[in-house]
Amino acid sequence: MPTLTYFIAMPLAAAFLTPLFAKRMKRAADAIACVSTLSLFALSCGIAVFVINHKTASYDVGNWVPPFGIELVVDAFSAFMLVVANMIGFFVALYSVGYIKTYTDKWKYYTLFMLMMAGVNGLLITSDIFNMFVFLEIASISAYALVAFGTEPRSLEASFKYAVMGAVASSFILLGIAFLYGFASTVNMNDLAQVIASKGQVKLLSFVSILFLMGFGLKAAAVPFHAWLPDAYSSSPATIPAVSSGVLIKTLGVYAIVRIFFNIFGATAAVSSVLIILAVLSMLVGAFLAFGQTNIRRLFGYSSISQVGYILLGFGIGTPLAIAGSLLHLFNHSVAKSSLFLNSGIAENAMHSNDLTRLSGILKKRPVSGYSMLAGAFSICGVPPFGGFWSKLMIILACVHAGRPGLASIAVFASILTLAYYIKALTPAIFGKENTEPMTQHEIKPNAAMNIAVIALTVIVILGGLALLPGPANNLLNNAAAIIVKGTSFANIGGLR
Amino acid sequence: MIIYMLCLVLFSIGLYCVLRKRNIIKIIIGIGIMEYAVNLFFILIGYVEGGRSPIYEHGQTMMKMVDPLAQVIVLTSIVLGLSVTLLLVSIAIKIYEKYGTFDITKINRLKG
Questions:
Q1: Which chain A residues contact residue B92 at CB under 8 A?
Q2: How many angstroms separate the most distant Cα atoms in chain A?
């Protein structure tokens, strides 16, 4: 299906066209970014429907037969991730129309943003492990540059930290790919899965697994590797944490880990226990560190780390219910956290501070983003009937079913901690008295595009649990979970080919 | 075998440089060393003793050839490494403009 190349060609073309037109026409950059991300979102929904009916869509680039040529494949898992990534991408692009006006050179922002989307989409549709690395680097390098976009001292420092850690992680991943290529003489994922299955588990694979866990774990911000995340989030434009928390750490980190460990290596008990340890550490450490934060972006950043823990926990448990719960939580967290970050951007523009002691009375000053923030926070804490409640419930139930009540109680405990720090931090910020101190700068009002993006995300946050009712969304979720559960035999049931 | 081990030693030297050095330029050099070590490792994997370039000519018998895929991968990875280095160096220049130092222990406005 040649349509698949569109996912890479469209954002790359948009990134190329933006500098050409944006200098002459004022609104060209906005229009190109919004139209291309909207078309990608529509197309990813179309691909998802196609994949539900036909199991898989594939395209051999240049008609070279795989495993020799490059193959693009979309199965239910990657289709699910494509829908999430492109949906968040579209809403963030829509929000940027109003938000990025406060920065100079907005066409540079859009160029980097579209390059990042090209990397993310490419990573999701490729079935070649080296191509995966290349797209991961494209997305990461654009993200490093976007974090430094404000060129204030703080953002440069955060960007340098992020870039150094990311470059070291990428080197680990490439070293892992080198060992894997030397071992299996192929880079095609489907071929790799078969070769590894026929050669059996050898010691080299454990070493490669450790390299990949370090590399992709850093991209996913799982706990021992999380140090870049709060810094990068607190000192960049508000759209960057929204897209990073909603898309980047999910695709570059979680998707890559799951694809490699479940579908190529086959989920062994050792890998599951390592994932569970990472998950428990992330949940607890993220939640405890969030308590002391006075900066709203750092608070949300630590909350992201904690929620990634839940997602990894479900994959570590590995039963069908747990994996479906993880995928649903991935979706719910992406939407809710992007909405929270975008709203924090509106609130910061209103009060010119992202310090929680100075942010107060958001509900009075900006009612739309106040209510929207409340919905997002409820979803993340797991208050019924918001989306986050159902996915957390699924993960915790799966822990109990799998005979791991200890893990279930840790998950419940982390959830209570989440509720506690959100109440502590956000109650004064949202419901408190309006800050009456005279401000040195003019407040910046959100325009219609920003409000529409935030309201649409809020509606999805509230309706997130409906994905469990019978329908296309539920089919996609179950098919995606089935592909992960099948492990290395995914090739034979119409996963990747 | 020893040559592969030396490659990994080179990688570790780069990692040591990134972890221990305080000057950000030296950190960037460390990242460069790591990237070169991985590239060298890839080339060694694809190398065949006495192999020739894998170009097929008409009427020629197939002989031992080096693996072209490893070389293609290294070319791509060199370009990626170049762009990371470029970005890091430009950020380092900006950091020097704003902070007036290359010492990472003095570049510490972000905490928590």
A1: 160
A2: 71
